[in-house]
Write a structure and sequence with these properties.
- Strand 15, helix 4 and strand 16 form a beta-alpha-beta unit.
- The chain has 363 residues and is α/β, with parallel strands linked by helices.
- It contains 12 helices and 20 strands.
C-alpha cells in the first residue's frame, strides 16, 4: 500500500464472538467503521476478519541453548507474524529484543524480562539463577525492565529427590510478588507439578504457565481468584519424549511427567468448566517452532473448549486480558483475514489469507 492509501476490509468482521460487521476501513493505519469521505487509492480485502492473534507464551530471542542473535530473533518474529500472531507476550527471554519495537513490520511484544529461577534448577543460559533471599530484588528489577509482567520458574526437577519440586518458599514468594505489584507488574510462573501451586496462590500470583499439576482442590481457588492459566498443550505433547530421555537417571520424574501428559486434556477441561481464564500460548522459542497458534487453539478444542471459546483465548479475550485493543474505532489496524469462518473450525487459523499490521498488508 502507498502512503495515504485506504484499506477496505469487507465480508465478515468479527469484532467480537457475536459482534459481526460487514466492513471496516483502515485510514492512516487506524480502524474506522465509517466510510472515508475521500479515498482515491483503495485496496480491498475480502473474507472473515479477526483481531491479530495472540501468543500469550512465546520466547522471541531464545532457542534451546539460550539467547540468539538479532537475525534469528527476526526470523522467529516473522514466522509468528506470517501465521497471524501480531501480539506476543514474551514469557521470558535472555536476549534484548527491544529493537523489535522500532520495526513496523514485526509483531508487538509484551515482555516479562528474563526468567528468574533457583540456582541450577532450570535450563542452562536461560534465567537469572538466584537463591530465595534475592528473589524480591530480582523481581523488582525485572518488573522495571519488562512490559508489565515478570516470569518465575515455580518448579523444576530437584536432582536430590529425582522429581519435580517447588523452587521457592512461601515467604519469599509473598515478598517478591508484592514487590512486582508495587511496580505495577503482574507475575506468572512456570509450573508443571501440583506442589508449587498452593504457595504461589497464597502469595497472589496472577497467572500460571502450563498448569499440568492443577487438581480438583486447587481449580476452584484459581477460578475464585481469577488466576489465569496458559496451558501450552503443544509443549505438553513433548512430555513423553522428555520422560524417555530421563528414564534411567530420574525414573520418578519420568513417571510423573507421563502422568501429567496423560491427564492434560482432563486437567484443562476441568479448569475450563470451573471458569478459570485460559489463553493460547505455544511456548515457542525454546525447543519448539514458532507459528503454532492455530495448533494450540485446536488443542484447546480437544480439551473441551468450543471453537469460539478457543478463538477468544487467541484473540478477543487474550487481547482484553493483556490490555490491548481489538477491532475498535481508532485502534491500530492489526488484523488477520481468513477465507472461512474460524468460529466454525479453528483449524482455519492455520491458513490466513491476509495479515494486516499497523494498517499495512504484510503477509
Amino acid at each position: 500500500m502507498s502512503d495515504g492509501a485506504v484499506l477496505h476490509i469487507r465480508g465478515r468482521v468479527l469484532v467480537g464472538p457475536e459482534d459481526v460487521r460487514d466492513e471496516l476501513w483502515v485510514v492512516d493505519g487506524r480502524i474506522t467503521f465509517d466510510r472515508p469521505a475521500r479515498a482515491a487509492d483503495v485496496q480491498s480485502v475480502a473474507g472473515w476478519a479477526l483481531p491479530g492473534l495472540v501468543d500469550a507464551h512465546c520466547h522471541v530471542g531464545l532457542d534451546a541453548h539460550g539467547a540468539v542473535d538479532a537475525e534469528t530473533s527476526e526470523k522467529q518474529a516473522l514466522t509468528d507474524r506470517d501465521a497471524g500472531t501480531l501480539l506476543i507476550r514474551d514469557a521470558g527471554s535472555a536476549a534484548d529484543t527491544r529493537w523489535i519495537d522500532d520495526r513496523d513490520d514485526l509483531p508487538r511484544i509484551i515482555r516479562a524480562g528474563r526468567h528468574i529461577a533457583r540456582t541450577r534448577r532450570y535450563i542452562r543460559n536461560y534465567a537469572h539463577e538466584i537463591e530465595p533471599g534475592d528473589l524480591a530484588a530480582f523481581v523488582r528489577h525485572e518488573a522495571r525492565r519488562g512490559d508489565g509482567w515478570v516470569k518465575l520458574v515455580g518448579d523444576w526437577i530437584d536432582r536430590g529427590t529425582g522429581d519435580l519440586a517447588a523452587c521457592w518458599p512461601g515467604d519469599a514468594l509473598r515478598e517478591a510478588i508484592a514487590a512486582a505489584h508495587e511496580e505495577g507488574a503482574r507475575v506468572t510462573a512456570h509450573c508443571f507439578a501440583a506442589e508449587s501451586l498452593p504457595d504461589l496462590l497464597a502469595a497472589g500470583i496472577d497467572c500460571i504457565e502450563h498448569g499440568t499439576g492443577l487438581t480438583e482442590e486447587l481449580i476452584p481457588l484459581f477460578a475464585e481468584r481469577g488466576v489465569a492459566v496458559v496451558p501450552t498443550l503443544v509443549n505438553i505433547a513433548t512430555f513423553p519424549r522428555l520422560a524417555a530421555g530421563g528414564e534411567q537417571k530420574f525414573p520418578a520424574w519420568s513417571a510423573h511427567m507421563r502422568q501429567l501428559h496423560e491427564r492434560r486434556y482432563a486437567t484443562v477441561g476441568a479448569a475450563h468448566d470451573a471458569g478459570v481464564p485460559l489463553y493460547v500460548g505455544t511456548d515457542a522459542g525454546g525447543s519448539l517452532a514458532h507459528g503454532l497458534v492455530a495448533e494450540e487453539a485446536a488443542e484447546l478444542v480437544k480439551a473441551g473448549l468450543t471453537p469460539t471459546e478457543a478463538l477468544s483465548a487467541a484473540s478477543w479475550g487474550a487481547r482484553a486480558w493483556l490490555g490491548r485493543d481489538g477491532l475498535t474505532e481508532g485502534a491500530s489496524a492489526d488484523l488477520v483475514v481468513y477465507a472461512e469462518d474460524p468460529r466454525a473450525d479453528v483449524r482455519v487459523l492455520a491458513d490466513p489469507q491476509a495479515v494486516v499490521l499497523r494498517g499495512r498488508v504484510v503477509a
